[in-house]
Specification:
The strands form 5 sheets. Strands 5, 10, 11, 12, 13, 15, 16, 17, 18, 19, 20, 21 and 23 form a 13-stranded antiparallel beta sheet that branches. A 4-stranded antiparallel beta sheet has the order 1-2-3-4, with no helix packed on it. A hairpin with a 2-residue loop joins β12 and β13. The protein is globular and about 55 Å long. The protein is 5% helix and 50% strand. It has one domain: Distorted Sandwich (Beta-galactosidase, Chain A, domain 5), CATH 2.70.98.10. With 298 residues, the protein is mainly beta. The termini are far apart.
């Protein structure tokens, strides 16, 4: 055990997981058929010291960047501190905080405050069924008024990895986005299963089935991702100098608070008191030579 607490091991069939409850109930390790598929640090400290770039972590009550500072939303004043060098509030409030293990594969946190004027609860459920991993996230509004909310997972998959995203449209940049996505074209058309170009930080919308396929050619492993949620988006980032690719299923488009205020598509949901928003992500693993032609079709 380190000063960051103990790792919780969950395993079944060819899948092995290590979860770090003390830092966002994040996946420290995902190993399939003996191969590490996440960007896993040599020790646990980077999860605390550089928390956004390792493993896989849940995001709530919003994903990716929203504006820091005072803003009135749903009749209440949000005043979020900046948590990223670009001056935005990024990846929600629960990815760096201690969670409680409820039972095997279930972790929970109560949060709110720190500039977010609602109380809420988040539960993450992890299940392994043979060669399939299921990650489920539920955000529940436990305050007495409607609360904006969005949830997602932020895995960093180790390179070399090929990625296919079955999407008809895209927000080309997560740093500055228009109200509507544009049709995929050029480097943003990711239907083919291939390595992603450097320098992407984008959000794909209007997803087909399956929305994502990943393949690690050196390991001979392929994964088909399914995403079940009221609204579905895939963020992908290939940051220069990083030996991993982020492929993030989530429930809203970039700048979700602005979208809610402007009445734009892809905004944060407005969750009534005692109601929940849920996201279920499946990863079905197969040997690449057994997977066949499973890339998504338009």
């Amino acid at each position: 055990m380190s000063d960051l607490g103990a790792l919780v091991r969950i395993a079944g069939g060819p899948i092995e997981l290590e979860v770090l409850p003390e830092v966002g109930a994040r996946l420290h390790r995902l190993r399939v058929h003996g191969h590490d598929l996440l960007r896993t640090p040599d020790d646990l400290r980077p999860h605390r010291d550089d928390p956004y770039f390792y493993g896989s972590y849940p995001m709530a009550p919003w994903c990716n960047r929203v504006a820091a500072g005072p803003l009135t939303v749903a009749g209440r004043l949000i005043d979020l501190p900046a948590t990223f060098p670009d001056g935005t509030a990024i990846h929600g409030q629960v990815s760096r905080r201690p969670w409680t293990q409820v039972d095997e594969g279930r972790f929970r946190i109560g949060a709110g405050g720190d500039g977010w004027p609602w109380e809420y609860e988040v539960e993450q459920r992890i299940r392994i069924d043979g060669a399939r991993l299921e990650l489920a996230l539920r955000l529940t509004n436990v305050s007495d008024a409607p609360m904006p909310g969005g949830i997602g997972f932020h895995p960093w998959f180790r390179r070399p990895v090929r990625v296919a995203i079955a999407a008809a449209s895209v927000h080309p940049s997560n740093l500055a986005t228009d109200a509507e996505p544009v049709p995929v074209a050029g480097r943003f058309d990711r239907h083919a299963l291939e390595e992603m170009p450097e320098g992407l930080d984008s959000t794909w919308a209007d997803l087909a089935e399956p929305p994502v396929v990943l393949e690690w050619p050196a390991a001979g492993i392929q994964a088909t991702m399914t995403v079940d949620a009221p609204s579905r988006f895939i963020v992908a980032a290939t940051l220069r100098g990083t030996d991993a690719v982020a492929v993030e299923p989530q429930t809203h488009a970039p700048d979700g608070i602005r979208r809610l205020l402007a009445g734009e598509r892809g905004s944060l949901a407005l969750i009534p008191p005692d109601a929940s928003l849920e996201l279920v992500v499946g990863l079905a693993f197969a040997r690449a030579d057994e997977a066949g032609e499973s890339r998504p079709q338009t």
